[in-house]
Specification:
- By secondary structure, the protein is of the alpha/beta class.
- It folds into two domains: 98 residues, Aspartate Aminotransferase, domain 1 (Alpha-Beta Complex); 238 residues, 3-Layer(aba) Sandwich (Aspartate Aminotransferase, domain 2), CATH 3.40.640.10.
- Helix content is 42%, strand content 18%.
- The chain has 14 helices and 13 strands.
- A hairpin with a 2-residue loop joins strand 12 and strand 13.
- It is globular and about 60 Å long.
- The structure holds pyridoxal-5'-phosphate.
- The site of pyridoxal-5'-phosphate has 12 residues, from helix 3.
Length: 344
């Protein structure tokens, strides 16, 4: 059976064009910085995000960890959202590997950290306190619904950071989704930040890899730490070749995924038994099961699988569906009809 896979945008397999580019990629030893395809990818990523330099890393998790390690010393404090990927989904790497103390602040319903909460959490100089060093935000904010955070909000966080002598990192795993959803240039969302991580391997469809961007000195230090973590890769131009197509062809088409997420949202709204979250403008649809639904999450997943649709749960009686390059209009229809049938 051909499945419509709505579990995540991480399931995106490379396109035939990507596979061809990968097969033909010019490569070299990237630890010597000799891989022309990686170099090209890094230059292009830096230019697109308006930063001095960029580093190709194996995963978004490593990209975020490197940013934390470069910005913070052991014992420093980093302000993070309590629903952020860095805080809940990166195996505690910041503290386990970096000795960095997380200061989790409540993510608001709109995905932001309240500016007054950030302000109030900045430690004063006192022998009892940690040293606040870094503010991290996530755009789009995944767990809050795939919500894009605006350029205005990002600028406000940037100003707050600057006024208080703090550094500012964006976990922009889906920053191009945010830019598409807000209809702004991605640089409007990245300009205030000292560093940004984004994933090639999600909605941008590449099989592997993320980019970490920032100032030249920051990236040089991140490259050193990447080697320390075992992330120095050799002829990795075979992966970077796919990443270049992500930047050239995929970053500009994410609006299509968002339109399909909207259709999915509108369709599922009509299905009795589903309580949909307010729609975010990006590629995610979240909902809870209504109280009267007696099927378990796993039964629903299995029934949907039988109907050719892969879905995953996102918490107790909660689901997240994600549209991406390999989900077409027919797949959206199949998912809506599937849920209507299963919950009848
Ligand atoms: C996926 C994701 C990451 C990490 O990416 P991996 O490549 O899976 O390590 C970081 N932040 C957010 C918000 C993500 O969704």
């Amino acid at each position: 059976m051909e499945y419509t896979d709505l579990r995540s945008d991480t399931v995106t397999k490379p396109t035939p064009e990507m596979r061809e580019a990968m097969a033909e990629a010019e490569v070299g030893d990237d630890v010597y910085m000799d891989d022309p395809t990686v170099n090209k990818l890094q230059e292009k990523a830096a230019a697109m995000l308006g930063k001095e330099d960029a580093l190709f890393v194996p995963s978004g998790t490593m990209g975020n960890l490197l940013a934390l390690l470069v910005h913070c010393q052991r014992g420093d404090e980093a302000i993070v959202g309590d629903k952020s990927h860095i805080y809940i989904n990166e195996a505690g790497g910041m503290s386990a590997l970096g000795g960095i103390h997380p200061r989790p602040l409540r993510n608001q319903a709109d995905g932001t950290l309240a500016l007054e909460d950030i302000r109030a959490s900045i430690q004063t100089e006192d022998v009892h306190h940690t040293i606040t060093r870094l503010i991290c935000i996530e755009n789009t904010q995944n767990v809050c619904g795939g919500i894009p955070l605006t350029a205005e909000y990002t600028a406000q966080v940037g100003k707050l950071a600057k006024d208080n002598g703090l550094l500012f990192h964006i976990d922009g795993a889906r920053i191009f989704n945010a830019a598409a959803a807000l209809n702004v240039d991605v640089q409007d969302l990245t300009a205030p930040a000292d560093s940004v991580m984004f994933c090639l391997s999600k909605g941008l469809v590449a099989p592997v890899g993320s980019m970490l961007v920032g100032r030249g000195k920051f990236v040089a230090r991140a490259r050193h730490l990447r080697k320390m973590l075992g992330g120095g890769m050799r002829q990795v131009g075979v992966l970077a070749a796919a990443g270049l197509i992500s930047l050239e062809k995929m970053a500009g088409r994410l609006g299509q995924d968002h339109a399909r997420a909207k259709s999915l949202f509108e369709g599922l709204k009509q299905v009795k038994g589903l309580k949909l979250d307010a729609r975010s403008a990006s590629n995610m649809v979240y909902f809870d099961l209504a109280d009267h639904v007696t099927l378990t999450e796993n039964q629903i997943i299995e029934e949907m699988r039988k109907r050719g649709v892969l879905v995953d749960w996102a918490g107790v009686r909660r689901f997240r569906l994600v549209t991406h390059f390999w989900v077409d209009d027919a797949g959206v229809e199949k998912a809506i009809e599937g849920f209507a049938e299963v919950l009848k």
